[in-house]
Amino acid sequence: MEHPATTSRPSGPPPTAAWTLPGIGLLKGLAVTATNMIQSYYRKDRMTTVQYPEERATISPNFRNFPFLVYDGSDAMAGMRCTACSICENECPPQCIYIVLDRDENGKSLKRPKVFDIDVSVCMNCGICAEVCPFDSIYMDGEYELSTSDRFGDLLFNKQRLARSTDYHAQLRPLEAAEVAARRKADEEKKLAAQAAKEAKAKADKEAKEKAAKEQAAAE
Ligand code: SF4
Ligand code: SF4
Fold first, then answer.
1. Nearest residue CA, atom 2 of ligand 2?
2. In terms of residue numbers, what domain contains 122?
3. Are residues 137 and 97 in the same domain?
4. Ligand 2 binding pocket includes 130 (Cβ within 6 Å)
5. Same domain, 162 and 177
6. Residues 114 and 158 in one domain
7. Nearest Cα residue to atom 4 of ligand 2
């Protein structure tokens, strides 16, 4: 009995490829190369090099180099979104993030980093820290002019060096920053509405209790 897998195979000789002139593919490739070369002299979009450093190529919004920390408002340290939860530190593959949680005199967490360092000479630009952060705090920067002769002093970024404003984020990655800002605003509004509802309920409960107490006192 014929195997079921072979029953649908078409009968007859296999189809032969259409005949083409030998070398036609090579000629087509050379034509594309020649077109690009000639157009690169007069078409701006074909010019693949710029006169760096006088000129700079526009970088893609998806380009990522090293991370930065976002802060709200005008005070970088007070407005830092980072809560020092250490998720990014634990997930960083080469372990180049170092965080120390800030605490008050009683040892209570202040939910902010006392130390937040990234050794960018070790960072491999993977972006995992930005993906796992639940507090919209860390994003990938597009800054690339970082060459230095001081490997330890200049490539160990502390929180002051890593801090960037929301405006910077919006300029660098407009779509991402707008989406984050809208989500944070909606979350804030939800939180305020929940707080207002809680306060209204507490007030109504208190009034009901006072009314019941008054009624009981009047009955006695
Ligand atoms: S980009 Fe990757 S390697 Fe660099 S700090 Fe973030 S998680 Fe670590
Ligand atoms: S950057 Fe984000 S994930 Fe990393 S410690 Fe701060 S809040 Fe946590």
1. 133
2. 67-166
3. yes
4. no
5. no
6. yes
7. 88
